[in-house]
Design a protein that fits this description.
Shape: globular
Oligomer: single chain
Number of helices: 9
Bound molecules: pyridoxal-5'-phosphate
Strand order of the largest sheet: 7-6-5-4-3-2-1-8
Radius of gyration: 16 Å
């Protein structure tokens, strides 16, 4: 575990990116082991599992909610996490702002842009993305949009994966130079998992979300 963690951390650093260690399904003692190596950013995608883990692990862990989030779970998540990666609808963004304002807590979010060809993948298209970004700029006081997130198609075709990441990077640039031109916090691009993080880094990722390669396969 140590050697893999060191290699991926160094790869991320050499691209000015950070590693989010995706610890979903993994027991707290394994998370603690990686914490002891120096890892501080961990990603979970189930709310109940996050709640169970947060309270028994060190306070200075920065928790990232990485998966699809249901609106009725937002109030549980907002007090605990630093960043929500997969904001995929305006209704979800509104709910995050509502709950964040209730507890007066700042929460960073990434808007999920749909790059994969699969029907099942969540995310905005270009038009709805603009709409959500506009809403955030005009109405969000506690919710800070810090960038975009995406997931490539699950395929062996690495040329396709690279094209999808490249498209996400282009979309990111459009917003960064456009709507967010005066906002230096809009600078993150969350893309890349165990199977494709090296391609993602080459295509401009600033946050890689790696699970199974670090912790071993999930059962
Ligand atoms: C599980 C998950 C990951 C990590 O996947 P691995 O292939 O195990 O690295 C990354 N992002 C999201 C949104 C996930 O749900």
């Amino acid at each position: 575990m140590k050697e893999t963690w060191e290699i991926i951390t160094a790869q991320a650093q050499s691209h000015d990116a950070v590693l989010i260690a995706v610890s979903k399904t993994k027991p707290v003692h394994e998370i603690q082991r990686m914490y002891d190596l120096g890892q501080r950013k961990f990603g979970e995608n189930r709310v109940q599992e996050l709640l169970d883990k947060v309270h028994v692990l060190p306070d200075d862990i920065e928790w990232h909610m990485i998966g699809h989030l249901q609106r009725n779970k937002v109030k549980d998540v907002v007090p605990l996490v630093q960043t929500i990666h997969a904001v995929d609808s305006l209704r979800l963004l509104r709910e995050i702002e509502k709950q964040a304002s209730k507890v007066e807590r700042r929460v960073s979010v990434l808007l999920q842009f749909k790059i994969a060809e699969e029907e099942s993948k969540y995310g905005f298209d270009s038009d709805s993305l603009q709409e959500a970004a506009n809403f955030a700029i005009q109405h969000c006081k506690f919710t800070k949009v810090i960038g975009l997130m995406g997931m490539a198609t699950f395929t062996e075709d690495l040329v396709q994966v690279r094209q999808e990441f490249s498209r996400l990077h282009d979309q990111f640039k459009v917003l960064q130079l456009g709507l967010f031109a005066n906002d230096t916090d809009f600078k993150e691009l969350s893309m890349g998992m165990s199977g494709d993080y090296e391609i993602a880094l080459e295509e401009g990722s600033t946050m890689i979300r790696v699970g199974s390669l670090l912790f071993g396969a999930r059962h």
